[in-house]
Specification:
173 residues; Immunoglobulin-like; 2 domains; four-stranded mixed sheet; four-stranded antiparallel sheet
Length: 173
C-alpha cells in the first residue's frame, strides 16, 4: 500500500462504517401506529396524472429564426387536470379538498390518507373526481365508493382502486 492510497482507503472505510451505523439507527425509527383502541382508515393509490393537451399550428413569428429541420409541426400546451378528494365517515367529512400532483410536471397523482376511526360499523363515502373545468380531458377518471365497513380495534381498513379503476375496500371485519 503506497503512502498516497492509505488515506483514501481509511476515509472510505470510515464512510462505509458511518453509512452502516446510520442504517442501523434508522432501522430503529418506529412507524406511528393508530391507537390500540381505534381502527384505521387508509385511502391510498397512485394513478398516472391526466393532462388537458391543447395543440395548434405554429405562427410565422414563432417559426422565424428556427432552422427548417427543427421547425415543429404543432405547438402543444399540457395542463394538469386537478382532482378533488372527499372522504366521509358516517356523514362527517374527514377530508374534502383538491389533490395535486407533486412537482411542476407531475406524472402521477398520489393519494395517501390515514385516519384513526372508532371501532364499529361505519358508512364510508369516497369520491375522487376531476375539477369541473377539465372533466372531459382524456384519462380524467372519476372514482367513487359508498360502502359499509366494520373495524375492530387495531384493524386497518384500506380503500384502493382495483385493476379496472374502481375503488374497493379491504380489511376490517
Amino acid at each position: 500500500m503506497s503512502v498516497t492510497t492509505w488515506p483514501r482507503r481509511f476515509l472510505a472505510s470510515l464512510l462505509a462504517i458511518a453509512a452502516l451505523l446510520t442504517m442501523v439507527w434508522l432501522s430503529r425509527v418506529h412507524w406511528r401506529n393508530p391507537p390500540a383502541d381505534a381502527a384505521e382508515l387508509r385511502v391510498s393509490w397512485r394513478i398516472p396524472a391526466p393532462s388537458d393537451r391543447q395543440c395548434r399550428p405554429p405562427t410565422d413569428a414563432e417559426l422565424e429564426g428556427v432552422l427548417p429541420h427543427m421547425r415543429p409541426t404543432e405547438i402543444c400546451t399540457d395542463e394538469a387536470v386537478p382532482f378533488r378528494l372527499s372522504i366521509l365517515l358516517d356523514g362527517d367529512t374527514l377530508r374534502s379538498g383538491p389533490v395535486a400532483g407533486a412537482g411542476r410536471r407531475a406524472r402521477a397523482i398520489t393519494v395517501y390518507e390515514r385516519f384513526a376511526i372508532p371501532p364499529g360499523s361505519h358508512g364510508i363515502v369516497v369520491e375522487f373526481v376531476p375539477e369541473a373545468a377539465n372533466a372531459n380531458a382524456p384519462g380524467a377518471l372519476a372514482m367513487s365508493l359508498d360502502a359499509s365497513v366494520t373495524g375492530a380495534p387495531g384493524d386497518v381498513i384500506l380503500v384502493a382502486p382495483d385493476d379496472n379503476g374502481r375503488l374497493y375496500v379491504s380489511g376490517g371485519s
